[in-house]
Amino acid sequence: MKAEIICTGTELLLGQIVNSNAQLFSRALAESGIDLYKITTVGDNKKRIEEAISTAGESVDLIILNGGLGPTEDDQTREALVSVLGLGEEIHHPTLEKIREYGKSRGLPYLKNNDKVADVPKGAVVFANQVGSAPGSAVEADGRIYILTPGPPHELEPLLTQEIMPWLRHRFQLKDRIMSRVMKVAGIGESTAEERVRDLIASSNPTLAPTVKRGEIHFRITAKSAEEAEAVRLLDEMEAAFRERLGTHVFGKDQETLEQVVGQMLLDRGLSIACAESCTGGLLTSSLTDVPGSSNYMQFSAITYSDEWKESFLGVPWDILMKRGAVSAETVQAMASGIREKTGADIGVAISGIAGPDGGSLEKPVGLVYIGIDYKGELQVKKLLLSGDRLRNKAMSVKRALSFIYEVLVSAEA
Amino acid sequence: MKAEIICTGTELLLGQIVNSNAQLFSRALAESGIDLYKITTVGDNKKRIEEAISTAGESVDLIILNGGLGPTEDDQTREALVSVLGLGEEIHHPTLEKIREYGKSRGLPYLKNNDKVADVPKGAVVFANQVGSAPGSAVEADGRIYILTPGPPHELEPLLTQEIMPWLRHRFQLKDRIMSRVMKVAGIGESTAEERVRDLIASSNPTLAPTVKRGEIHFRITAKSAEEAEAVRLLDEMEAAFRERLGTHVFGKDQETLEQVVGQMLLDRGLSIACAESCTGGLLTSSLTDVPGSSNYMQFSAITYSDEWKESFLGVPWDILMKRGAVSAETVQAMASGIREKTGADIGVAISGIAGPDGGSLEKPVGLVYIGIDYKGELQVKKLLLSGDRLRNKAMSVKRALSFIYEVLVSAEA
Question: Which of A2, A110, A289, A311 is most worth mutating to test chain B (most B CB atoms within 10 A of its CB)?
Fold first, then answer.
């Protein structure tokens, strides 16, 4: 089974965006054992899209086209495909209704151009787009399968993994499975974690490879087998060995996030949490409430950006703020206790730091962040020295705070 | 001047890495006015690299090959190129010496394979690699220029910008510059905005093209001219026409964000702001505080996730919460006024909605969000019907809230 991908989008040829969709496709095809021969990127130009389709390798069984399914004049990918294949088009009525309904419910004026998004090649299998408007579609012609897919990554990702790949696997009776599992680690340094699993990293099937992703430490296990059950067995074995080495540092796997795992622990133990944030400006509470059902353990949090509010609302002594400063171990301790007392929550979490680019000094540089946790009256503090820009320092502080909460919950259980 | 790029690397076809080099090349070529026609990505396979070279468009003047210049068996890009062109190879002695010196200084065993990195096509112009070992090189054949470039991004970037692009601009006497500018719009629907500038979109130089990026509406102006001053003039002219059509809906351009623009307006007018967030869980305040210096207008915000806190802290009447519900125009109005009174801020902003996936009903579906603003005692409310998942609904609510704040500030000025 051999495939090619044709990405369309002038913004890709101008370097305005990086082609993350190409990676998404590549990975999905690799995991299903489909050999990807070539990725071609052309602009929003019907003639060049047609050329790219026509010059695909002769032995290729599957051509995936990405982008150019929208309502504007620029969007010409479907038009190019049906023109090369000599196919007609038809309206996909559920999509048309959805588009019109959407416009109506929002009181938008009717624009005829929008209707064209509902057109698909005649006789195509249609993959409904749950997130956006343009559906995916597949047609067979000249002994090949052609698949049209929408360009926006957040629309493509669910469509590809939930609709198109399962359809392809079934259609081609694909058996060789490459399966992978991501193990997620917290509360331990990257190199220490790697040291502990060094011998496992040497394994060839399944493989184990460390990756650092947005401040989290991940390890990817990849297994290959003709039998799905065998691949799963290989993954399970490696996961067990991995967990043996890293114990409770393994907080989750695959799609599980630290905020979900922390949320589930809070839920299971009937604990409530409240945050007092300064430099992260609400981002920690936002992460905690990214989890559905978080209202069970989160009722209130405060962003106390100014010293005055740290004193008046959280009861941080003015003396500490003046002598130790807002960014200090003493202040986050007082903030954590303050928010816990104010709300009656079981756990109070506080963050104060210098996110940058201004506000740093020799003694307290940009990137200095303190996190305090008051767990039922027991206080703990962590000090971070981060090296990113303002947004990255905020994001990293939140990751480290979540990891800290996880550690506290794990040790409270023990 | 027309170009194609051929990227080689099996890791790209397996989705192990994203092709950031393609973006680097695309941007560099665009800025020098070289039209990029196509990007082709193939694996580390001599035959397929040869095919990619052979099937390049006839009218193409420049073909850049990336990757596959290393010492291993997999690295075959130079071999493929000289084979297609029927060229010989020669040793680039400075590179050979550097490689051998490097090995010796580190006490590494001599490996004959490493020497091949110093080979270049016969008669090539060589671009020394200051960071790694494999040099870049350019040859002319069949009336075209072929350029070989190393794969590692940190080697490619300086080689491209400091050596190859200046050489290309000189070699082709390139004068044409392509410059672009992004105009950012808020407080107006995408299709309405497009309607108003439809005739401008028809222009060919400069061009105007709409793009939607993370819930914001952007329009990119691109101008091409032999003279940089002329390109700037074309951009300025189009910007003026664009602003005439969309007025204060144009909130900024290029790197400017809505939170920066709103922040600057608050700063300029000496106004303060405070938020009371429910479904966005702190993300609005986090966005507002992404701006350096935001402590000048933001002192405190609250995440009132539960009804109890909406009542006790913000003073939302229990009656409203029970009869209208937490997600209602009445509640966000009371929340906005409540946070404003509590903090003494000039502007109170409140968000309450159903982010999903649970909590929706026929009457109040997932994606229903109310935003309330109390501007010095004047209340305004917006109702949204979003269609994303939980995280996207949160992010979109924040974008819309920022846009709403911007609108209120604009009309308060008028």
Answer: A289
Residue A277 near residue A350, CB atoms below 8 Å: yes
Structure tokens of A89? 């088009």
**Residue in B38, B295, B308 closest to A40 by CB:** B38
Contacts 24+ apart (CB under 8 A), A111-118: A111/A71, A111/B191, A113/A71, A113/A72, A114/A71, A114/B191, A115/A91, A116/A71, A117/A69, A117/A70, A117/A71, A118/A91, A118/A92, A118/A93
Eight-class DSSP state of B32:
T
* Extended strands (E) in A199-299: 207-213, 216-225, 250-253, 273-277
Q: CA nearest B29 in A: which residue?
A: A14
Residue A298 DSSP one-character state:
B
Identify the domain boundary among A253, A277, A296.
A253
CATH number at residue A237: 3.30.70.2860
For residues B314 and B278, give the distance between their C-alpha atoms in angstroms, rounded to a whole number: 12
Q: Residue B90: what pLDDT? A: 96
Task: Return d(Cα A406, Cα A400) in angstroms, integer.
Answer: 10
Question: Which pLDDT band, with edges at 50, 70 and 90, does B165 fall under?
Answer: very high
C-alpha span between B114 and B163 (Å, rounded): 24
Task: Determine whether the interchain pair A48/B37 forms a contact, defined as Cβ–Cβ distance below 8 Å.
Answer: yes
3-state secondary structure of A166: helix
In whole angstroms, how far apart are CA B13 and each of A154, B22, B107? 21, 14, 36
> For residue A77, what are the contacts with CB-CB under 8 A and spacing of at least 6?
A8, A49, A65, A66, A67, A68, A69, A148
The pLDDT tens digits for A200-258 are 988 888 988 887 666 678 898 989 888 888 999 999 999 999 999 999 999 999 889 99
CA pair distance A197, A200, nearest whole angstrom: 5
Q: Do A14 and A162 belong to one domain? A: yes
Q: Are residues A137 and A231 in the same domain?
A: no
User: Cis (ω within 30 of 0) for the bond into B357?
Assistant: yes
pLDDT tier at A414, thresholds 50, 70, 90: low
Shortest distance between the Cα of A406 and any Cα of chain B, in A, equals 20
Any bridge partners for residue B218, and if so which? B184, B211
* CA neighbor of B329 nearest in space, from B287, B371, B288: B371
Element (H, E) at B222: strand B216-225
Complex prediction ipTM: 0.77
Do residues B231 and B181 both lie within one domain? yes
For the cut 90, the answer to whether the pLDDT of residue B176 exceeds it is no
Contact B14 A27 (CB under 8 A): yes
CA distance B386 to A150: 20
Residue A192's H or E segment, with its range, is helix A190-196
> Which pLDDT score, from 0 to 100, does residue A252 have?
95
Where in the sequence is the domain holding B231, given as residue range(s)? Answer: 177-253
Structure tokens at B394: 């949160």
Of B26, B303, B306, which has the smallest distance from its Cβ to A282's Cβ? B303
A247 & A266 share domain: no
The reply to whether A334 and A400 lie within a common domain is: yes
Nearest to B151 by CA among B139, B168, B136, B169: B136
Q: What is the pLDDT of residue A258?
A: 95
Return the number of other C-beta atoms located less than 10 Å from residue B298's C-beta: 24
Dig out the tokens for B411 from the structure.
């009309």
Query: What's the CATH number where A379 sits?
Result: 3.90.950.20
| B40 with A39: Cβ contact below 8 A | yes
C-alpha B202/C-alpha B389 separation (Å) is: 35
Q: Please state, in angstroms and rounded to a whole number, the distance separating the CA atoms of residues B348 and A160.
A: 42
For the stretch A118-128, pLDDT in tens is 999 999 999 99
Chain A interface disruption, residue of B296, B305, B389, most A CBs within 10 A: B305
pLDDT in tens, B63-72: 999 999 988 8
